Amino acid sequence: MERTCCCGELRASDAGKSVRLVGWIRARRDHGGLFFLDLGDRTGIVQLLIDVQRRPKLESLSVLRCESVIEVEGVLRLRPEETANAKLATGEVEVAVDWAIVHSSADPLPFALDDGTAEKVNEEMRFTYRYLDLRRPKCYGRLLRRHKIAAAARNYLNENDFLEIELPTLFKTTPEGAREFLVPSRTNRGQFYALAQSPQQYKQMLMVAGVERYYSLARCFRDEDLRADRQPEFTQIDLEMSFIDREDIHALIEGLMARIWKKVLDRELPLPLPRMSFQDTMDRYGSDKPDRRFPMELVDVSSVFSGSSFAVFAEPIAAGGVVKALNGNGLAHLSQGEMRVLEDGASAMGAKGLAYIKLEDGQWKSPIGKFLTEEMRTALREALSAKEGDLILFSAGPWEKACAILGRVRLDCAALQKEKGLLSLSDDLFDLLWVVDFPLLTYDEGQSRYVATHHPFTAPIEEDRPLLHSAPERVRGQHYDLVMNGVELGGGSIRIHSSELQKDIFENLLKIPAEAVERLFGYMVRAFRYGAPPHGGIALGLDRLAAMLCGTNSIRDVIAFPKTQKGMDLMVQSPSSATEKQLRELAIALH
Ligand code: ASP
Description:
Layout: E1 18-30, E2 34-41, E3 44-51, E4 69-78, E5 93-104, H1 115-118, H2 123-128, H3 130-133, H4 137-159, E6 163-164, E7 170-171, E8 182-184, E9 192-195, H5 200-208, E10 213-221, E11 233-242, H6 246-265, E12 275-277, H7 278-285, E13 298-300, H8 302-305, H9 311-318, E14 322-328, H10 336-348, E15 356-360, E16 363-365, H11 374-384, E17 391-397, H12 399-419, E18 432-436, E19 441-444, E20 449-452, E21 479-484, E22 487-494, H13 499-509, H14 514-527, E23 535-541, H15 542-549, H16 580-585
Parallel strand pairs: 3-5, 6-10, 12-18
Antiparallel strand pairs: 1-2, 1-4, 2-3, 4-5, 7-9, 8-9, 10-11, 11-23, 13-14, 14-17, 15-16, 15-17, 18-21, 19-20, 21-22, 22-23
């Protein structure tokens, strides 16, 4: 099929040319003896003029439904000035059709493909007919943008001497990390692979193998309950390097982001990116992925309440904790329902309640008002720059928990401020930063043991190593997260490359029994005994990055064939049952 050009490319300067086009009929307008079709392909649409009096055979096109596929030949001409459409790139021209054939005539559509209609259709319907949904220029535009990000990443990494290497998808089950998808092995009855959650261990083995610079656009699989922005399979820009330190990774990734900004957004990304320590970001924003597009910050007001008669605050301070406060500017007039939103957010983070003060009508309206002396009010007013119309919110308890609770309240306050027109965030505002100096280990109350904050292969910061056994909670890891607008875009670390240290962390700090360490990670501990280079790496979530650069909240919008919240692919109807024979071969009995 030799089309001379694509539909969306035609311009007034092409007028007079003969053209041959292929595409889908997007719309029809009848004018008695004369009708117009909009013909569309991936580049856009152009108007076709069909004059049946001049070309009687073309009458047959008038019965075709939208989304039928045709091929036409004709002459491009300028539209009469009064009919030009300034909103359309091809709006000044039309094709006077002389000849056409029909490649495929379409059935009535399950839903109309204009954005206005399609976006109101429920997601189940759109996903069942995803091939129709994707025909919308908006959806195609997102796939295109995702492709540009991936291409920019590949080019950049290729230029920096990285090798693209595919790593196994069929991996093995390991207990540290998210829940895995198990794959039964037919040839090894009763045994299972696990789909790789990430190529972490393989990429480290590539470093031991001397590859020095690896990357891949890695498919990762996690069998997690799917929150709004999660998918069971997703893609990471995954890389690993030898003979480097944290600074090298920061510089490399900053260069990569700048390249993507330039190629995809045609914008300069100011570098270097700012960095914040975990301690600092928790203190100020109550989150390890701070959204700094709005300035509202947490303030430590422990000194105001220490020794006060208000036990709910004084006791946690006496127990070594803190009282944090936040000024929700302009939110003194929240309704009861809106206050409940804030309280629910706090209690989802483990708060028992949410103390507040409304600075309203010249008064301090608050359930804790009777505990507030004049001195305390002055101190609070100063610490929080509080004024008439503000809402002050508090949390008290152990430092990290108190910060995290108020961090959540902070986000909910910002959402309310946005609703009320007190805060506006433009779509093209991107705040990128590194968060560093995370604790190496986090105590897991449920399991009564430490777990790795990032993953168990992360190296401790050298100067904290003496504390590994005496005060493990104070050891920081050589771990870094890249955060944008309150979302974690990715993370990585400098790894352990000493066999002894890796074994010590597994057995003595993570309390994985020696036998299990040998079974699960024995090969790694062994590999490190044959000459392991210092190495580290990072993985960036491609889906999330693409979604953010496409201005959408959902990664489903930038995945060609996404799964529903229940993990189903509605188009192909998966998952589906297996036959008796298949199950027998796999030695699986269903209960
Ligand atoms: N494999 C890690 C992850 O998926 C990233 C890294 O440490 O490189 O989070």
